[in-house]
Specification:
This is Recombinase RecB. The chain has 332 residues and is α/β, with parallel strands linked by helices. It has 8 helices and 8 strands. Strands 2, 4, 5, 6, 7 and 8 form a 6-stranded mixed beta sheet that branches. Strands 1-3 form a two-stranded parallel ribbon.
Length: 332
């Protein structure tokens, strides 16, 4: 079973078809502030020094992705800042490195199987960094105080180490992904739209599907594994709703620690996730209509870009940009 997945043949469209109207995006699915699929607001990047940035516009959310679902579960106010207010966030070295590594691993599969080597992958890093700077000029701010380029060199070297470690966890010469950076979207019977971007889909000759996600951080402790798998079960639910196929395996590849976390879902898992997402969406709908977005303080607040707007830190949120209605009875 596992070997058949590992030796999956390249069959474009064998798992899920990309909607033809979907525009390409810069991949960054590893980090919370990743670019979201079209149709769902994501945090804007702070404008470069001297720039004015874009005018802020607000709209009620119309769909749910794994990262935005995680935002709401972590802190409803964070979800509001990112999706409703679309407050800018500064790029971070860790998130940008994740974007770079993902781009390298995606591009490596453009080469014939026998040429997918660690040296070739590492050689892709400089060119992908150049492309990233062209598509997202704001990332150059990360090294504005590094005129000699020493910190940048170390940062790029760490990206190369992460890429090289991947070869100890998977053998790309034996893989022919059916899809890479695959946009998926499904509408549930309730009308809730789920969408996201899957790093890699492998399809075995027998038709079994494996969903793979790369993480540039370290694997979580066992007691936090369920939270880490939420994103993967979300994707599995979308695939099931689209193709009526339960993926055989969900696989998280942690390049930071050299670990691989796998889970073989069953239909009951996906049904539980669907119920959870419906409850989550109802809570988001209520908060959107009433304007009642409560902060949820945790240790993660120390990494939040929005402390100046958060009441927990003495800040004041910006004026709520959507109409507010009186709270009514909750529906299930």
């Amino acid at each position: 079973m596992d070997s058949s997945i590992d030796e999956a043949a390249a069959q474009p469209g064998g798992a899920v078809q990309t909607p033809p109207a979907t525009p390409p995006r810069t991949p960054d699915p590893a980090m919370p502030a990743a670019t979201e699929p079209a149709g769902e607001a994501a945090p804007r990047t702070a404008p470069a020094a001297g720039g004015t940035g874009e005018e802020r516009s607000a709209a009620a959310p119309t769909s749910l992705s794994p990262s935005r679902a995680s935002d709401f579960m972590q802190c409803p106010l964070l979800y509001r800042f990112r999706v409703i207010d679309r407050l800018p966030e500064k790029p971070s070295e860790a998130a940008t490195r994740g974007t770079l590594v993902h781009a390298v691993l995606e591009r490596l599969f453009d080469a014939p199987a026998g040429e997918r080597t660690a040296p070739r992958a590492k050689a892709l890093v400089p060119g992908q960094w150049d492309r990233l700077r062209e598509s997202r000029p704001e990332v150059t701010e990360l090294f504005a105080d590094d005129p000699e380029g020493q910190r940048l060199a170390g940062w790029l070297a760490e990206a190369e180490r992460l890429v090289e470690r991947w070869f100890t966890l998977e053998d790309p010469t034996r893989l022919e992904p059916a899809e890479r950076e695959l946009f998926v979207e499904a509408e549930l019977e309730s009308g809730l739209r789920l969408r996201g971007i899957i790093d890699r889909v492998d399809v075995a000759p027998t038709g079994e599907v494996r969903i793979v996600d790369y993480k540039t951080g370290k694997a979580p402790r066992p007691e936090y594994a369920e939270g880490a798998l939420f994103q993967m079960k979300f994707y599995a639910l979308v695939v099931w709703r689209l193709k009526r196929v339960v993926p055989r395996r969900l696989q998280l590849v942690y390049l930071g620690s050299g670990d691989v976390l796998t889970y073989d879902p069953v239909l009951a898992d996906l049904e539980r996730v669907e119920r959870k997402l419906h409850a989550l969406w109802e809570a988001i709908r209520q908060a959107t209509e009433t304007g009642n977005w409560r902060p949820r303080p945790t240790k993660l607040c120390g990494w939040c870009d929005h402390q100046a707007h958060c009441p927990e830190f003495g800040g004041t949120p910006p004026p709520y940009p959507l109409p507010v209605t009186a709270p009514g009875p909750r529906t299930v």
